[in-house]
Design goal:
about 160 residues, alpha/beta, about 25% strand, single chain
Length: about 160
């Protein structure tokens, strides 16, 4: 509905992760803030939630997810299928953005498939992991999928090798 009749669409998606100048994954230095902070805080909270479930320490409750932080609830749900993978990872913080990417990739491709009738001329899907670094370093994007879909919603070209 928002794409011009002869237009194309670019969809870019992916989780983000911080890496300090010392190489610590899951933390990032921010300009003007002395605290080296979590990045992505939502992903780390979801990982800790999942760890509580898989380790058996999660508190059993009948409370429904809170609407006050709907996004956090969604991240926690999206990461549930990756509990074993994260639990067995050599470095949980390094594996976490890849697990989140995989869950988002499934979701985004489902959205594209459901809405493919709205594709006019074509759609390019770029998915990957945004890597946030400190204030004196450029940020990076690690591409993991780059595909072109035709007007029928079919993948007609894998463009990842071209990046």
């Amino acid at each position: 509905a928002h794409i011009p009749d002869n237009g194309f669409c670019l969809v870019v998606h992916g989780p983000h992760v911080g890496i300090t100048k010392d190489g610590l994954i899951g933390k990032v230095e921010r300009p003007g803030i002395a605290l080296v902070d979590n990045c992505c805080g939502s992903a780390i909270a979801a990982s800790n939630y999942l760890k509580g479930i898989t380790d058996g320490g999660a508190k059993i409750t009948t409370k429904l997810q809170s609407f006050s932080d709907f996004q956090q609830g969604a991240v926690q749900e999206l990461i549930l299928p990756f509990g074993k993978r994260l639990g067995e990872a050599e470095n949980r913080m390094k594996e976490l953005p890849y697990a989140l990417y995989d869950s988002q990739d499934i979701l985004v491709r489902d959205i594209i498939n459901t809405g493919k009738g709205g594709i006019k001329k074509g759609l390019a899907l770029l998915g990957g992991i945004q890597i946030n670094t400190g204030p004196d370093t450029l940020d990076y994007f690690h591409p993991l999928r780059f595909e072109y879909y035709n007007e029928d919603g079919e993948v007609v070209e894998d463009l990842l090798a071209l990046l």
